[in-house]
Amino acid sequence: MKCLGLLCLLATGLSTLSVGAVVEGLKHKYYHRSCPQAEEIIANMMENFTSADQRVPARIIRMHFHDCFVRGCDGSILLNSTPVNKAEKDAPPNNPSVKGFELIDQIKESGKFERYQVRGGRKDGKISRESDALLNLPPPSANVQLLVQMFANKGLSLEDLVTLSGGHSIGVSHCSSLLGRHVNFSKTGTHDPTLDFHLAMKLKSECVGVHKAEPTVVVMDRFTPTSLDNKYYKGLLQNKGLFTSDQTLLTNTFTRKQVIANAVQPLAWKKKFVDAMIKMGEIEVLTGQKGEIRKTCDRVN
Ligand code: HEM
Ligand SMILES: *[C@@H]1O[C@H](CO)[C@@H](O)[C@H](O)[C@H]1NC(C)=O
Ligand SMILES: *[C@@H]1O[C@H](CO)[C@@H](O)[C@H](O)[C@H]1NC(C)=O
């Protein structure tokens, strides 16, 4: 079984069968013959990991995004750096904030989150470069124009951008990723005027923990930090988006309309989120003779 493509999608709180564009070489029940229980085992393990640690789904969703945007969904984010190559894993957008690699290894060896169906058949990539991660992953300082461009580069629409940004309805962020929005925005000496004042103060007080061994993190969605729902969009309408890349979605007429629609239509958003995750999961995939099936997830064969 290959390393990432199949299992990541099983971590999210949604369930539906989806249509979407069909990529040659990918199909449902891909492991039907070779390993009929594959998807069941993966789903079970994801459920077990999640009941042991509720941070797991957010981590896997983000890892999936960061894998797919860099050389496609080929598990290249899992490869370790070598003496001659600094890999994606060690690029600043990933290290140290992308977590959960050990879970993938555990699954390879052997909450209330539902499931949805993904096509299988992705092969593992053999290349993983830090520089690709820096070029392809949008920074939290990105404005809507840059986000639209970077998503378009991956075949994703403005609507996909807004839909997928809802991934920020779960999980946490390091205080450093706020880039001073809550305290000293663009060296103005004060918080970002597009960030809610009370939230800025709260973030400021939460982000002072300098003596801790682990860097301080803050929740992405104040209302329901561990449930994948549309509260993220309600937050944006109250200037409670954590990053510029969240709040900027209100500055473009089309994306703003989408934010408002998602804020009032939770079920429609969920359905769109599943479809968009599936679409993202089929970016530049390697199938058939391309790529390989890695024996160990963090090393090419
Ligand atoms: C639109 C451009 C995006 C930007 C600029 C962005 C940026 C970020 C940043 C800076 C963090 C915090 C990292 C840290 O400091 O710990 C984060 C966390 C997260 N992002 Fe995004 N992101 C984007 C899109 C997405 C998408 C498309 C998804 C998935 C659908 C996603 C899912 C997540 C999740 C689940 C977390 C929390 C991870 C955890 O709890 O460990 N993000 N993102
Ligand atoms: C998940 O946990 C249950 C209960 O502890 C256990 O019976 C089951 O074997 C575990 N599943 C996997 C795939 O590890
Ligand atoms: C904001 O940042 C700038 C540049 O780093 C610094 O000179 C200034 O003193 C900071 N202001 C406050 C209030 O921290």
Structural commentary:
This protein is 38% helix and 2% strand. The chain has twelve helices and two strands. The protein has a two-stranded antiparallel sheet with strand order 1-2. Helix 7 (158-165) packs across helix 11 and helix 9 packs across helix 11. The longest helix has 15 residues, at 38-52. One 2-acetamido-2-deoxy-beta-D-glucopyranose binds at residues 184, 187, 189. One 2-acetamido-2-deoxy-beta-D-glucopyranose is lined by residues 184, 187, 189.
Describe the secondary-structure layout.
Blueprint (H helix, E strand, L loop, with lengths): L4 H4 L29 H15 L3 H13 L32 H9 L20 H7 L7 H9 L5 H8 L6 E3 L22 H10 L10 E3 L11 H7 L6 H4 L5 H12 L1 H15 L21
Antiparallel strand pairs: 1-2
The protein binds protoporphyrin IX containing FE (HEM) and 2-acetamido-2-deoxy-beta-D-glucopyranose (2 copies).
Order of helices and strands: HHHHHHHEHEHHHH
**Could you tell me the mean pLDDT?**
90
The amount of beta strand, in percent, is under 5%
Low-confidence stretches: 5-19
The count of DSSP E runs of length 2 or more, i.e. the number of strands, is 2
Radius of gyration, taken over Cα atoms and rounded to an integer in Å: 19 Å
Structural class: mainly alpha
* Separation of the first and last Cα atoms: 14 Å
Strand order of the largest sheet: 1-2
